[in-house]
Amino acid sequence: MNTYKILNKTLGAVALSILFSTNAIAQKQAAKDMKVLNKEIKKKGNKVNVYMDLNLDDVKLASNKGLILTPILYKGEDTLKLPAVEVMGNKRYIYYQRTKKTATQNPLIVAKRENKEPQTLRYAYSTPYQDWMKNSNFAISNDACGCNQKLLAENLLTNNGEALVTPQQLYQAYQQPKAEAVKIRQENGSARLNFRINKWDIVKDLGNNTNELATIKQTLDLVKNDPDVTITSITLHGYASPDGSYANNDKLSRNRTQALYNYLLKTYPIDKKLFKVESTAEDWEGTLEYIKSHKIPQKEAALKIINSDMTPDQKEQTLAAKAGEAFRFLVDKVWPSLRRTDYTIEYDVKAFNLEEARRVIKTRPQKLSLQEMYMVANSYPKGSEEYNNVFDTAVKMFPEDKLANLNAALAAIDRGDKVSAEKYLKKAGTGAEVDNARGCLAVLNEDYEAAKQYFQKAVAGGLKGAQENLNKLNKIVE
């Protein structure tokens, strides 16, 4: 390259530098005279939308000067510069038109300033939302490096700001359960006692009998010694396994169940009128349940035989003859565990006042009704750990209850537990209150369009509070 070209290039760079450079005092004054109007920074879905009007009515620029305005989102060390606005004096703008060169890369707006003329630039830009932007600040710089920043808003996109609504700010339709007229509860267990072949007398030290009898005692004591409960019935149901003749198994199941009944009467001072003694000669139902849910040899053949109209003895004989592998598997692995006595202790529980209920929920929550648990929850501040824990306990005690699942879902939404909320809402049924809860979960997931649809359904279903939620959502979602 010859000297002329080098010199020409150097002078061109210097000229460009002079055109891009702005007198610091003039730059600051121009930026000071610029007004930011109608500013909106909103989070919508996974986007952050920035809108503002840049009013230049009072801005004066020398013909060869430029004003660089760069919007910035920042929090701590995280900074995002949005595309800039470049406002140019007349000569600077002519140079831009000829060369298409700007002081910043890909500015959103390039405009010529006509001094003393009214002029407003509309800034509108969307950027992907990032987690750090929550509680971030918004500023606008007036130079290329972004050093001279003017703070326009702080703590943007916060859960407490106008730009975002949270479930805690919404109406949540917790439902008060009805009181139980009588609180009926039960304790269940299975005793797998060992007996000598074709015998039914109970031998305490045979096999695992000591532990099995101790477990029954522990269950009985839990209820019998509780002053809050009254035992209403004790059901013993004995089962024999299908191996062997039906007649003999019928005799064994009846006599062995009766033997346990006699043992309990002799051991505990319990009114014998409370007992119900039942028996099933051969547990083919339990056999079917096992086969359906497990892999066993010749599974389909075994199922076909067991589901047939054969007598119990014929089924056993046919299994042995035509599905020998399945038969041996059942004899060795399945049928021994079906020899048992199931027991159910049913009892009534007294009603509790608030003080008693707060004590009981920490020890034996199964004694409380949903209405009593609701009373306990509302004795704590809404949204507190104690408040939320009560609804979690309630749904554990009443896992299939629709109302318990609805309230547990709302508590989960309150603490930001999306997974649990979704799980509980699947069992909460339908209705305006459930639609409203689904709307609150959609807000937590920042799916505002879905939230609006759920709130609209809840409004149509007659839930007044859902209209409040819809109004709040409409204020922040276009």
UniProtKB/TrEMBL annotation:
Keywords: Signal. InterPro entries: DUF3868, OmpA-like_sf, TPR-like_helical_dom_sf. It comes from the Bacteria. It comes from Segatella sinensis. Residues 1-26 form the signal peptide. SUPFAM superfamilies: OmpA-like. This is DUF3868 domain-containing protein. The lineage of its organism: Bacteria, Pseudomonadati, Bacteroidota, Bacteroidia, Bacteroidales. Residues 22-100 form the DUF3868 domain.
